[in-house]
Amino acid sequence: MSKNAETLAAQIQGAAGKDPVKVGLILGSGLGHIADTVDGVAIPYDDLPGFPHAGVSGHNPKLVVGDLEGVRVAVFGGRSHYYENGKAEAMRLPLEVLKELGADTMIATNAAGSLRPDMPTGSIMCLSDHINFSGLNPLIGEPTDARFVPMTDAYDTDLRAALHKAAKATDTNMADGVYAWYSGPSFETPAEIKAIATLGADAVGMSTVPEVILARFLGLKAAAISTITNMAAGMSDESISHSHTKAMAPIGAAKLEKVLRGFLKAQT
Questions:
Q1: CATH code, 46
Q2: What mean pLDDT value characterizes the chain?
């Protein structure tokens, strides 16, 4: 663990208390409001040297540490994407800090495009696996043999089962599927979507995979949920844009929030 992560963790504990965090949540587009419901302390990323600026509209760049549904959480109100700075490892320091705060679990959320007609805009999908369609990796340059991270069970089986149980308990439909990471920032072409579908993807997006790789590298259990904000290119006559993503995100976000809250309640 980097010295910077230890220093930042001590700074955060000085503001939010030393009780260990249990779960870290990374919020995607349209989900930043969840951070505002945590009973705790909010720290802007700008006050945490080395944290990303999370300069994407629809994100809320602050770390909130406190209680959510009876569980001590650290909520990241935004993330840095590869397309912002060309750095796949941009979220490494925040996740190192999460580990230093005592967490053993990371749950990421994102906005994604659907490749399945039975998973329309407004749906949510629990990730069962991913395809690194970008070919990038946040561990490139890591000098130790720890970089050779096994990814067979990247998305923890028990966490996924608990999330699906929470979905059922809250009467929320949640699909299961494979997420493909595309670097962005341009959206995919119809030909690329056909290629990704042939490879076995159910949804496509521009985040999450680097964070899951980093989480596994750090020994954190990982899970992730997508909110479906559009049908992927060529799947419908829908107009795809970031404005559309932000407009559609709250539909799935309401469902995702119910699942997250149900999951956390079950942990107490």
A1: 3.40.50.1580
A2: 91
